[in-house]
Amino acid sequence: MKRSLEWIGAGLLLGASLQTQAAVDVRAAIASGYGEIEAPGLDAKVEDFVGGDFRARFQANEHVFLRGQYLTMSGNDFRANGQDYDIDTDLDVLRLGVGYGSNWNSIRLYAAAEYVDLELGIEGEDDNADGLGATVGISDQGNGSWFWNAELSALILDDLRGASLDASVGYRFTPTVAGLIGVQSYSLEDKDDSDYEFGFGQVYAGFQLSF
């Protein structure tokens, strides 16, 4: 009986600790960007991508976190080999990951493993690639009004290999509400044909809620 009470007590203390340390950040932003495709005989670019960037992060305890991102953009200003076309183009990116971080004074270093799904649609014809990402990042964990974050990811998505870069800076209006701006870019190429390259990027601005 005593042993059972000890286990119950330990479980309650652990649950209370996780509840105390747990934190959630939710982001929503307007995104504006571009997309590029280079292949033999083709040099194409979409310059009027607009859409939304939605992210969430759950800090389970001092070190472990879960996170996700959904980016959706669309445009129709399609330029190929110097000619302009009105072609509906859609881009969707889903990222889901688990990570581990540690603080050093006001700086936090972290790494994450992610599932990444990328879908490009041109005039209703969709091309999908999914796979894994490995991310390392650094962020400001200070208590001041300003905060920042930067991270680099290595990506393996089916036959595509490459990297993504994300950097942002924000301002806390209150402990719960913050505004932020940032940039994100992707650069990918076919692992078997380096002449095929695909890249896109965005500038985003929005808000963050922290609980």
From TrEMBL:
Q: What domain of life?
A: Bacteria
- Cited InterPro entries: Beta-barrel_OMP, OMP/PagP_B-barrel
Question: Where does the UniProt annotation place the signal sequence?
Answer: 1-22
Entry keywords, A to Z: Signal
What residues does the Outer membrane protein beta-barrel domain cover?
9-173
Its name, as the record gives it, is Outer membrane protein beta-barrel domain-containing protein
The protein's organism comes out as Hydrocarboniphaga effusa AP103
